[in-house]
Amino acid sequence: MTTQFSTSLLHSPGPAGGRIACRGCGHDLCSATDRWKDHARRVERPLREVAAVYTTGPDALLREFVCPACGLGLDSEVARRDDPPLVEYFQVGA
Amino acid sequence: MTDVNPITFEIVRHRLFRTIEEAVITLKQVSGSATTNEGHDLMVSLYTRDGELLMGGVGFLHHLTSAAEACKAIIRRFGDEIAQGDIYLLNDPYTAALHTSDVYLVSPIHHHGELVAWSACFVHVNDIGAINPGGFSPQARDIFSEGFSSPGLRIVSQGRVCRDVLDTFLNMVRSPDMVALDIRSMIACNNVARERLIVLIDRYGLVAFETVSDTLIRRSQQLLEDRLRALPDGCWQARQYMDVEGEPAIIMLTLRKTAARLVFDFDGSSPQSKYGVNCTRWAAWGGLLAPVFPLLCHDITWNEGLLRPIEMMAEPGLIVNCRRPAPVSIATTAAVQAVNNASLLCLSKMLAASDRFRPESTAVWHGSHLCLYQFGRNQHGHDIIGSTTETFGGAGGGRYLRDGIDIGGEIPNPISRMANVETNEAIMPIRYLFRRRLRDSGGAGRFRGGTGGEYAWVLHDAPERRFGFVVSGKGIGFPMAHGMSGGYPGAPGRYVVVRDIDVLGDYAPKHLDGITGRHEEVSWGVYEIGPRDAFYVRWNGGGGYGDPLERDPEAVRKDVREGTVSQDAARHLYGVLLTDDAVDVPRTHAARAAMRQARIARGGAA
User: Are the beta carbons of A7 and B352 separated by less than 8 Å?
Assistant: First the structure.
């Protein structure tokens, strides 16, 4: 039975925690215990370029992780360029 | 343990909560401060005889556990000297408090001479004698510059106010009349809590009271543990940036959930700062838990049982566990707020991983307080200190199935709100030019964040032709109300002083751009407004939830029509094209498809 890993990601239970896929198109990303963001497209741009209301400093980026197949926005972060992506994963056996 | 019949159990449980409610009403009615009685910057709760949380009340929830530590600190310090009718003051952040301005008054509750419980409350007093008026002290570099600080002081002895102690305290603060009223309001609050609890115990007996108390704590722990077992095991992270004078500090939080246990780990956070944006360990603990109560436990009694399955890891010397004498006067709106936000995001990600609990998940609400403490002589000839309280107006975060509420408050304080413009104008020599929701400030998303707001004021009837203010802004260089599952962050805050403005006369500009003059962005320090100046504040919107390209185009059209979203944002953030107040469906479909393809083309491997 397929459930969801998050609002934008599907989770199919199975060996080693199961698999993670895009909710929009079902594109398989990785194992649920893996770092799914490593398997998504990463789009970064300065927040101040996103919209006029973001009167932020130059270091503030909007980092988006999108499905490589359909382009659905899977997650977003406020980040600086060299800061690593935030981690989220299921524990094996969950 | 003695059995209590179910009807008596529910009556006692209900009356415990009503005791708190009545004490809160007392606090608000006696206090003369808009921060307390309009902004609801307060908290009242009940504690066991050992100082453990018995019944958490309303107000700023990060105080529930710190006030427990205050009770325990008083027990350790005064021991057998604690007497019926005593009330103790504690505001030392390295003992229990969040910062010196948030003063705790805690009261032992005796029944026939036996200590059976404690009540505790706090308000943000108008002043605490710190280097800067109002208590938030951007110029402080250590705790010694942050005003009066006590690890425990008997202020009422067996029902009689200790005049020497109170007068000494009031002698060390600005605006002593208002601070005296703050203290009096808390004494009254504790008196009401004590009296109502004694009546309850007289009616149902001490055994029944303690049986219900113990049962409630065990039951809450059990219910939370059952809930945690129903959630998937995993790991979720969140990160907050606090920009201060161009020096961003990081609060990094990792939540690891295993079976019925939550471990929050601050590894990777910045070292303590030279500015007062740090917080102590107890403050971080309270900040972590504040979102736990409404998100995970909205239907469970808030007490000590909820704390037992939760652990916090924070090395000493971090910005969330600073070492004395590091300054902490801005903690509540800085590190504690960032911890609130990060905790909320980690919890939301965990909830979103469960089909059953996903509807409880939310993007970050009001991410940062755009506080403003004003001081000077008012139109009535009094030297005053006050806050305009808009910062408590907040903004709701987008949720799994709903938009965030515009100016919808904040997660750590379920009853926060802001004062009327007229309240502020009545006590301060200022005139508002405008105050309203801010277009495009809610983070874009399938369900957008609630809007924040903006306001501006000029001097009005100021006898000294000037009025000072203190700002200690975070969430300006980096937005702190982050989105969920692809949602965008809410707009950041902003302070602008406009110097040498044109004479306004009867004309009142409706936007910042309409205030002509020299615009100066400010965020940190002490400033003055003169007769030819204006001051503008923008507070942040809530984060969005889900991909903005999945938002119902009709909802975007409605937002544009109501002025909460601009045409430009509709086109460029949501991919919605409008023609004559109607969605152009074919062009919207094509625009969204093109935007998705552009993301794929533009994106690199992570």
Answer: yes
